[in-house]
Amino acid sequence: MFVAPALQKLLDELERLPGVGPKSAQRIAYWMLNTDRETVVRLADAITEVKDAVRFCSRCFNYAEDDLCEICRSHDRDHGMICVVSEPRDIPPIERTGAFKGVYHVLGGELSPMDGVGPDDLHIAELLRRLSDPSVREVIIATNPNVEGETTAAYLSRQIKSLGVRVTRLASGLPVGGDLEFADEVTLGRAIEARREL
Amino acid sequence: MFVAPALQKLLDELERLPGVGPKSAQRIAYWMLNTDRETVVRLADAITEVKDAVRFCSRCFNYAEDDLCEICRSHDRDHGMICVVSEPRDIPPIERTGAFKGVYHVLGGELSPMDGVGPDDLHIAELLRRLSDPSVREVIIATNPNVEGETTAAYLSRQIKSLGVRVTRLASGLPVGGDLEFADEVTLGRAIEARREL
């Protein structure tokens, strides 16, 4: 195969990206070759910058560019409500709803005895320490609605209740806009249990 | 939306890539944040390097890192056979077949009166100049099997024949491994016309 070596190197690196196979890598590489230098170098710089500038918030473990992330620094947020998520990537979808004005705490994973992930591998001690602040009124547990997420929620719930802080969990039920016909049994079961008055 | 500014910038730049929407951009960005710095910077460097190192071969207009591309420089290729393609991206699939040992000529597009692309916009004059070398025995036209590609092939064929050089075109027919049932009429018609003795 005769491909310019710099192009081959780019193809190899692009194929490491999640969801990028040989065909997409080729499409992206040729786009880069055909696009003006400025646009392409801006992407390369943004990649390097993210690795240099982004670290973990010392309070909530979300991505941050300073010691504290923008949410922990904000005076417009309700610091008495803490939403606990597994990963930083779980924060943007919650932010997009506009339904939550509190702050977050990122665990950095979920309890998984099978994979050897125990309470000490997550930022649970740091969460409990935050709860010693008497202004914290409620913790909303927003771990994933799967086995690991539910296990983590149950564990956290016990720990937090013993501190006398209110603990809630995101509701399970039918996705809005979904078809009842295609709902799985567990989701539908939860939706029936959690039915509300009309 | 609270996202670390460097992360937001990376997301914006990633979304410019072909085939990368907001979800894939987010998946790639979080992968970059969770991957060791060395791997990620290697990609950023490969991107910049490709823009700095890669230019067009002065003979065939394929991508090259020197004045001539690796194929034009090679002593293992048959320089008497020239395969004409529309774009550099058409070369790797032909190379992968292993069925062609000649050299290439990249037109840089296809004739398209609708889009205002005429013969002077493509590297046709340069191709005809290459054919003045008496060692050239055959030109294989491998433009795309669509309206623009066929128009370009017909145009080139007239020009090249007038120079007394043999011109051939890639065969059209059923894709190997395909289902006859799903073949379009034009392809099937060509396959019948070009049927061969068994």
Automatic annotation (TrEMBL), chains A, B:
SMART domains: TOPRIM (SM00493). A zinc finger (C4-type) spans 57-72. Keywords: DNA damage, DNA recombination, DNA repair, Metal-binding, Zinc, Zinc-finger. The keyword Zinc-finger applies. NCBIfam families: recR. Belongs to the RecR family. This is Recombination protein RecR. It comes from Berryella intestinalis.
